[in-house]
Request: fold
Amino acid sequence: TGSGLDFLNIGPSSRILSLAEASTATLTGSSAIYTNPALLSFESASGADVGYTLWIGDINNQFASVNILKDRFSYGFGVYNSGSGGFEARDTPGPSAGSFSISYLSLAASGAYRFGDLAVGATGHLLREEVFSYRASGFAFTAGAAMELLDSRVRLGAVLQHVGEMNALDLVSTTLPSSFRFGFKADLIEVRSRGLNDLPVLFTLHGDLNQHLNDLPRVDFTGESSDDPARFFSMAISANASDLITAQIGYRWGPTERPVSTGFGVYVKPVYVHYAFVPFSTGFGNVHSLGVRTHF
Reply:
């Protein structure tokens, strides 16, 4: 999954992936536990999300979360796992000494509070990584804020992500992918069809600036090293047809091999099913992600 527990930088839900991860100010259900926990308190109802992502290199990401609203307070819990197996172990050239797997796990708990049009939130992560026979654990914190403007047509968000530390894995501790992100969501225009079947389609613009705070050996699957922490900018457009069908397309600028993302979703209330597709420009494969969300 890259370097430095980089699975934490991968959007856990298909909705987030389809927006090129421009999600710091965008409502994405309970998966906001892993992006900007302040957004949890802007949801219209309590809800739960589950998702599965087939990443390149036969890496499997699974995620589940729940968000419970109570007056102005919101709290959530999530689990996010990434792993792959079947790697051959060799101490010297020659026959394999067996096989091993790599896995990463985050157990998260969040809390958020809303003050009118302003909300703040925080997430605590318990982290675990396993590589071959080595194991390490650690912790991380995420804290964010969000504000709605112009009758909720515009939303701003800022978040400090994944600040913490890991125990040593064999001899060296893995660096956490800490970052600061600022984003916006703006409803652009609503188009209505003519005739008996009035079908409004709302177009929304999403944007995110993501500044990494640590130097990592490899940057977002490029295999390249950087003298300075990486910076990304993501932009996406989404269309929502009367809360029945949604579609998204996004682009990510920066040192990445996955600049383009797309997705679509279907509401069969109270269930929302979503799919995302992210091609890698290296030709190493494509990412497929499927998610299900429900409100209660």
